[in-house]
Amino acid sequence: MRLFTAVTLGTTIEARVAAELKRLRQLANHARFVRVEGIHLTLVFLGEVEASRLPAIREALASVGPRHAPFTLSVGGGGTFGTPTHPRVLWADVHGETDALKTLQADTAEQLQPLGFESEYRDYAPHLTLARSHTSSGDPALLQCVKALSGTDLGQGRVDRLVLFESRGPEYHRVVEVPLTRTA
């Protein structure tokens, strides 16, 4: 099983991202754009995991939810990763209660670390991946997408659960959902 932990952003953001992706595809027709139903913010990538390890992972994640209250994030604007002239990844910026998101990510990573899962983030920088270049050399057309994203508001979403996803090719399946239940 190929697993990762993440949070989702809700239907408002999904709908606005879907509309925006239609517009962006016209600007970078060679890029691989994400599937709207797969939109998420990755917290910890676990990689290939044997199914027999799932109970321990479930138990570790169950301890996270009661320590965190739901919070709100917003998405808009964007940027790229890669070289300035040939970026490899297009992303939308995440705003709002990002400190709560960073704390959730750190706690999730801490709970999974004793099971042998190391976080790939030293300094977690939340972003919503929208597209990737088809080639490792990057895609200059993604720069036009960044200009198109400038000043965009893709909405707000309430984060109220931590999700363990299984990646099966381009599709993501929910394996475990842990509600964030701490009250203020």
TrEMBL record:
* Active-site feature positions: H40, H127
Where is the motif (HXTX 2)?
A: 127-130
What are the GO MF terms of this UniProt record? Answer: 2',3'-cyclic-nucleotide 3'-phosphodiesterase activity; RNA 2',3'-cyclic 3'-phosphodiesterase activity
What is the enzyme's main class?
Answer: hydrolase
The EC code for this enzyme is 3.1.4.58
Which reaction equation describes what this protein catalyses?
Answer: a 3'-end 2',3'-cyclophospho-ribonucleotide-RNA + H2O = a 3'-end 2'-phospho-ribonucleotide-RNA + H(+)
**Residue span of motif HXTX 1:** 40-43
| Keywords annotated in UniProt | Hydrolase
Annotated function: Hydrolyzes RNA 2',3'-cyclic phosphodiester to an RNA 2'-phosphomonoester.
Per the record, the similarity remark reads:
Belongs to the 2H phosphoesterase superfamily. ThpR family.
The record ties this protein, via NCBIfam families, to: 2_5_ligase
Record protein name field? RNA 2',3'-cyclic phosphodiesterase
- Taxonomic lineage per UniProt? Bacteria, Pseudomonadati, Myxococcota, Myxococcia, Myxococcales
